[in-house]
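User: Let's play a game. I give you a shape written as tokens, and you guess the letters that built it. Ready? Here's round one.
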């Protein structure tokens, strides 16, 4: 497992997220809610998901790369959907099972290794996790196979770090893959929203510097600052190097 993208880092991250009062306070203030976020998923982005969850009985949601399940727990609380999630971090999955033992199923595993029944989910969520697919084309086919007729796939997708920045909203690797397959989707450019969120993230991290250090978590504080360095410029400069989109796939 150690050769997987960021595996060791995420094992350590979820251990820290479970133990650190500073990090929980930071998430609450920076993102609007503590879902143990590592990156870009603030409450505004997550609340976008709610309108794609059907208002009916026996709704099933899958979160690919679910971390410790806190976002799924929030969606369950709002909709009473049955929640499924998988992640390659055993620390994250153990915490998810502990936090949400009812109306849920959490598995430890990687994209490409796990499978689910055909036409099983009303909604599939990928918050910055689709980059971990070893074969994007094959994984898209698998996601579509898991989706119920009329279901949706919600993808938060960032360019400029793990995925190279392309020219514009129409040139993304995911968008081109979906077009080649004839799969229907819509996209929303939320780059400006992401930029504003990163500036807030930096401001809040600076506020909690002392608490992180007192906990012995200075390295995680430094990571938060590093993650926001590229937003410490004008939006025009930022948008030349970074972009963020929401995909809704049918």
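Assistant: Ready! My guess for every position:
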């Amino acid at each position: 497992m150690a050769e997987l993208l960021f595996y060791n880092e995420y094992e350590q991250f979820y251990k820290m997220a479970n133990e650190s009062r500073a990090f929980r306070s930071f998430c609450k203030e920076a993102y609007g809610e503590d879902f143990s976020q590592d990156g870009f998923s603030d409450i505004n982005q997550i609340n976008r998901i709610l309108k794609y969850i059907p208002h009916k009985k026996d709704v099933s949601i899958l979160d690919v790369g679910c971390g410790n399940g806190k976002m799924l727990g929030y969606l369950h609380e709002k909709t009473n959907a049955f929640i499924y999630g998988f992640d390659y971090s055993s620390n994250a999955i153990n915490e998810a099972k502990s936090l949400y033992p009812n109306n849920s199923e959490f598995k430890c595993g990687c994209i490409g290794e796990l499978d689910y029944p055909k036409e099983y989910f009303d909604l599939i969520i990928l918050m910055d996790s689709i980059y971990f697919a070893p074969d994007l084309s094959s994984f898209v086919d698998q996601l579509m196979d898991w989706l119920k007729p009329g279901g949706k796939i919600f993808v938060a997708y960032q360019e400029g770090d793990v995925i190279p920045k392309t020219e514009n909203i129409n040139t993304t690797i995911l968008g081109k893959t979906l077009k080649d397959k004839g799969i229907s989707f819509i996209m929303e450019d939320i780059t400006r929203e992401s930029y504003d969120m990163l500036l807030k993230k930096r401001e809040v991290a600076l506020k909690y510097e002392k608490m992180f250090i007192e906990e012995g978590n200075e390295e995680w504080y430094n990571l938060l600052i590093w993650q926001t360095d590229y937003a410490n410029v004008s939006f025009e400069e930022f948008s030349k190097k970074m972009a963020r989109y929401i995909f809704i796939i049918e």
